[in-house]
Specification:
The structure is a homodimer of 480-residue chains. Chain A is an alpha+beta fold and 480 residues long. Chain A has 19 helices and 16 strands. Helix content of chain A is 44%, strand content 18%. In chain A, helix 16 links the parallel strand 12 (392-396) and strand 13. In chain A, helix 9 (206-216) packs antiparallel against helix 14 (280-300). The longest helix of chain A is centred in the middle third of the chain and has 21 residues, at 280-300. Chains A and B meet through helix 1, strand 1, strand 2, strand 3 and helix 4 of A and helix 1, strand 1, strand 2, strand 3 and helix 4 of B.
Chain lengths: 480, 480
């Protein structure tokens, strides 16, 4: 076979040792927090039935699903279908045009059912809902689960957007208590604090958006309204007001909205003044915000240090949210990424689509790949992260000294010290070059003399210091 | 939308919290050993181009690849192709039969290129070879990498065989030293020892198999020979000898083989006597076995405690192995799984298919899912593995006592103790039921009295003991 130049599918990436260590650093940090807050791990399969996935992410989402060809003679049933048309039509005089018409079945959507019934996981929320429904009788509710797995979307790849990327989700289902929201806010705070990423948590409530559409007199245009509100960061409040006007929002309320929105400190008092007391749904939303603020004050005192702000324009495309809505953005001017690195909210009927109604859930998500990019840009990865775990490399001059290293190597590993021996008979310079390239901190060098004296010349490859060590002394030195 | 009963694609599985904890226990144990031996992590994408995958796993492998439909109008080019045939043919009198013939393009293989150019990762070795070739200029050789990721095969699902399963591989490329084999043998030993799975490591060398085919006078039937040898465990040595006879192995050598094979302790001396001194390739194979035995003796002494045996019939379908061949089986009669839980070997030209010849590599693989099944069957998982990490759950009677718990909950978490509060206002019995179902060890109960005295009634849910504790006392108690 002729050698081929290998490539990767677009939008996908390899992660070499240094990358994986950094990614693991993020994943481990987030996972540690999830566990500390009592969340339990779940993993779902990479492939889901299309019946599980389709129709859950909107029309756009359906287009972005990666579909898997059925195995075996995957086009057989399609061919049989077409053969049948051909044979039916062959007895027909007006053949060609009508066949061509029926063979439209070959086009995208219609043909899919013949050749594909599985797709790649698109997010972690729908598989979680499916899991909850399938295992409802084994699960102890409220169910606090976290899930850290890749998802796939056939999006146009661009900076910061990949076709394979990881989500880290924490959700609670089976409880409508706002204490869950409190936990999730604290998880965001603690995880990003551990990662040293300065953030802003934006908070809103779907009920306020519903109330807002009432106030504007455009309840029938809720989605249009939220699409416009979602653009506030990009186009500014004045342009947003103009657009809201164009879809029929009443002018009085718009003027009030513009004022309230620009207040440096939007308090409950402002909100209550803004929404009329007859606006029941908005009132519920305000109550929820008050409750969460109360919880935060009990924990952090009145000088709440949490970087959380209420953003009346936050909608996150609404999707399935029914209560709280969260979004996390980086709060550092040096950061080029303006979009969110996390988000979530409460959904009151996610499992309903799979036949289990009235289960309230609330959850948040961390976007690993964006967090990675932010940490690279802001240089936030700890310096001590190295590609290899090796602490000591044994170097030698010939077969005899190589053999001499082996028992010491075993003793180091038995002591829990990551160590290796340079496997080939190469010049010492080559061996140390390898050690330096991998940033291995210590080289234990064995020559004729060392072997006779039952020691190693141990070189600290960072400082250049050298000393003669027995195996035990070496273990003490490195184990420090 | 009507509620649908969700299902999973066949051969795939959800892993609930308890399952994930067990799987993580295995993965972490293996990873700890990989790292201690100086292996570095690599992760490759789930999707690979079909050009990378096809032709690498034999004809059977190609059939088992999961193929991904191109996104967008994935059948458009296929339709254009067919429309062209139809329009060409519509000017032709002898229409129908010939069209039907050309539409054979719709059948499996031929049509694939129109609709799919990506597939799911089938193993970790080919993506690793691809990675090495693509990154050859950045990699420091010898390159010691480990990789723990799922792979997918459209195999018929059955007990112990899944369509999505995990492999854990460690490979060294760019070194032909047998010290690498030594490391890999020790890794197998140490990892399975940590997991408490009694194993037998079978070892053989491709060069002995080549030598054997010479000895039998059936060099041209090497593959047939190894297929027969691979059946030894199943059909026994006598039946194997019969089958070898039927493909032309010479009788003298077969008789000798039968004797040698059944020796309780196959030594180098036996092997040298068995293979004629003119059998150069066999001689090389024996030398390699001798060398590895020598290394093991230097480390473990002459009473080598390692559970490794030379098995002259071990071939593992040969695949791409050129030197050492390894296989690990469970050495416990109670275990129903008779097939291997790990395997590997040396390959001298794996990167050659991607244009980088003469790079020697050697590697081993652990099969996570089979190891899991074995550990379940032999009851080897540590008893203390629990689904949740939570150590303390706060229970309460009303909104006031709920609020009272919050600062204490925060203090516990700040002290690194995994803790949660029951989020809803339910009866204490319900709350403790939840705690017991999740095997949470401690409940910190806050009633009116506790709140007044600034304490919690802490109940050990395993022993039933109860005591009154301040938050600090609770932290000390649980942190023990």
């Amino acid at each position: 076979m002729a050698a081929q130049k290998p490539t990767l599918p677009k939008g996908t990436r390899d992660f070499g040792p240094a990358d994986v260590q950094k990614r693991k650093y993020i994943l481990n940090t987030i996972e540690t927090v999830f566990k500390k807050y009592g969340f339990m791990p779940l993993e779902t399969p990479t492939m889901e039935n299309l019946s599980t996935l389709e129709g859950k992410y909107g029309e756009e989402g359906d287009k972005l699903l990666f579909r898997i060809l059925d195995s075996g003679d995957y086009l057989k049933s399609l061919k049989e279908h077409n053969d049948k048309i051909l044979s039916d039509e062959s007895q027909d005089a007006t053949f060609a045009p009508s066949v061509s018409g029926k063979l439209i079945d070959l086009e995208a959507k219609a043909a899919t059912k013949f050749i594909s019934e599985k797709g790649l996981r698109y997010d972690l929320t729908v598989p979680f809902a499916r899991y909850v429904v399938m295992h409802r009788n084994e699960i102890t509710f409220p169910f606090r689960r976290y899930q850290m797995q890749p998802v796939w979307r056939a999006d146009r790849p661009q900076k910061g957007r990949y076709r394979e990327f990881w989500q880290c989700d924490a959700d609670v289902v089976g409880s409508d208590s706002l204490l869950n929201e409190l936990d999730l806010i604290q998880i965001y705070d603690e995880a990003f604090d551990s990662l040293k990423i300065p953030i802003q948590i934006k908070y809103n409530n779907r009920k306020l958006l519903d109330g807002l559409s009432q106030l504007f007199g455009i309840e029938d245009k809720l989605i249009d309204m939220t699409v416009i509100l979602d653009k506030t960061d990009k186009i500014g409040i004045d342009a947003v007001v103009e657009e809201l006007k164009s879809i029929g929002a009443n002018l009085d309320s718009l003027a009030k909205f513009q004022t309230v929105f620009q207040l440096p400190n939007l308090t409950t008092k402002h909100l209550n003044e803004f929404f009329s007391s007859s606006n029941e749904i908005a009132k519920k939303g305000v109550d929820e915000i008050v409750k969460i603020a109360e919880y935060l004050e009990v924990i952090y005192g009145s000088n709440n240090r949490l970087p959380i702000t209420h953003d009346l324009a936050l909608a996150r495309g609404l999707s399935y949210y029914t209560g709280s809505i969260f979004e996390v953005v980086v709060n550092d001017d040096r950061c080029s990424l303006k979009s969110s690195i996390g988000g979530g909210g409460r959904y009151d009927n996610l499992t309903g689509i799979f036949g289990l109604p009235n289960v309230s859930g609330v959850g948040i998500s961390f976007g690993l790949d964006r967090i990675y990019d932010v940490m690279e840009e802001l240089k936030l990865f700890p310096e001590q992260l190295r590609a290899t775990s090796t602490q000591v490399i044994f170097c030698h001059f010939d077969e005899a000294t190589q053999l001499y290293c082996l028992p010491a190597l075993k003793l180091l590993r038995d002591a829990g010290i990551a160590a290796e021996i340079f496997p080939d008979n190469k010049k010492l310079g080559k061996q140390l070059e390898y050690a330096n390239a991998l940033q291995i901190p210590f080289a234990a060098i064995a020559g004729e003399t060392e072997m006779q004296q039952q020691v190693f010349t141990v070189k600290n490859l960072i400082t250049g210091e050298q000393q003669s060590c027995s195996t035990q002394a070496l273990i003490s030195l490195v184990g420090q």
